[in-house]
Amino acid sequence: LVWVAQNLVLIASVFLRLKLYVDVWQLTEKRVYVGCFLGLVITGYLLLAWSIVRSRGLHWLIVRNLVATFVLFFALQFPNVAGVVARYNVARWQREPSRSLDLDNLVTLGPSAWPALVELAGDQRNPSMSARAASRVSSIAARESELHKKRDWRSWQIRRDAGVKRVLAHAAQ
After folding, report:
1. Taking the CB of residue 20, how many other CB atoms lie within 10 A of it?
2. C-alpha distances in angstroms, 135 versus 130, 139, 171?
3. Residue range 54-106, pLDDT digits in tens
4. What pTM was estimated for this model as a whole?
5. What HEC string does the chain produce?
């Protein structure tokens, strides 16, 4: 049990390092997934401790860990991680404009993150950043207008199309 506690302290230090990376740089999808993985590792160690205390067998432990892994993978299908990351980074920058904000990263996060970029383009508190964001929104809108002509009903996705719609609406203004 001491070994399990030691590993939980180690995992806590990794969480702290992850938080420091987010504080210094930005939140990224990979950092979100690393946090989820660390949560899964903690769950595994807690199940191991429970197995030791309650004298459960290896079969019990393996099945519970498989269920925990399945639950995590199943649950990660649903949240809009790219959108959450983009909104978090933009909101953090809006609170503290002295921090850096990687607009190119917002663009590469894809259509579900583009509404945050559109919000940034409309934010007039920092005209320089707003102009840079508007430039990126315009280039995305031009590219998406061309791609829209080649798509049919089979390419429809609710998150993707909502993001593209916001970009095209902003570019039309």
Report:
1. 10
2. 9, 6, 10
3. 999 999 999 999 999 999 999 999 999 999 999 999 999 999 988 889 999 99
4. 0.85
5. CHHHHHHHHHHHHHHHHHHHHHHHCCCCHHHHHHHHHHHHHHHHHHHHHHHHHCCCCHHHHHHHHHHHHHHHHHHCCCCCHHHHHHHHHHHHHHHCCCCCCCHHHHHHCCCCCHHHHHHHHHCCCCHHHHHHHHHHHHHHHHHHHHHHHHCCHHHCCHHHHHHHHHHHHHHHC
